[in-house]
Amino acid sequence: MVLLLVVLNLEGSPNTTLASDCPADVVVKEGVTQVVFTEDIKFPSSFETGWYVKPGSDIENVHFVVVGNDGTHHTAWFPVDRCFQNDEWWKFTMGTWLNNSRFGFVLRFMSSECWKGCQFNTSPPELYSLTLLAHGNSSWREYSPFNCGANFPINRNWPDSLPPCMEPPPSTPTPLPCSFMLGMLLVALMVAEVVVVVVVVVCRKRRLASSNKERFQPQPAALRPHLQLTAGQGLVPDQDEHHSHT
To answer: Which runs of consecutive H residues, i.e. helices, occur in 150-224?
Structure first.
């Protein structure tokens, strides 16, 4: 009897030893913001769905974009760097409601130790789609990782008040890795060396062409000695010949 209970207990407990082997549908790299999914909303006033996330050590934030049927975009940004205490798979549930009985147009999500929500200032006539974006190292699956086990957040009641939804802060440039910068420097040096070589070759060709031109340039024909003499005496050639015969 005791042995049977032990077997049942082992079969019912989540298996987290294979968490690193579970494939992900979407992998967000360190320092990158990436779309996890975009889903059309079938019901005009409410939508709720769930994915699974395996957070990395540097996951920073998530933000949602709710699109109305009038084309308006409504963004909600949340930091999540303190939501997860481990790198196991967690259920990540999210939803948006156009006409919440207490807060109006709202959005909220739950995962691990986080329950976060906000209310929008304006609302569209109907809901059209929901997009989730994640920033920082994390893996995402649409369906439960049965072979790896998954943790589920504790459901909580709505609070007495909700903060207004926030836009994502202005993004800061991601520092380039040193290896990339060294590679770009080497490329720049190689390009500069090629330019110098080309300039030297062109200059040498121009000098050689100029030297050849001077070498083969035709020289002016020398005046006949007779003409040179008469020219120096100020006499006309015919007159010179006439005086010589007389």
So the answer is: 178-215
Express each pLDDT in 76-113 by its tens digit: 999 998 898 788 999 999 999 999 999 999 999 999 98
CATH topology of domain 14-141: Jelly Rolls (2.60.120)
Domain boundaries, the chain: 14-141
φ, ψ at 169 (rounded to 5°): -65, 160
- Give the helix ranges, DSSP H, for the chain: 2-12, 178-215, 225-233, 237-245
Place of tokens 């110098």: 196
CB 89 within 8 A of CB 148: yes
pLDDT tens-digit profile of 220-245? 444 444 434 334 444 444 444 444 44
Rounded CA-CA distance 51/131 in Å is: 12
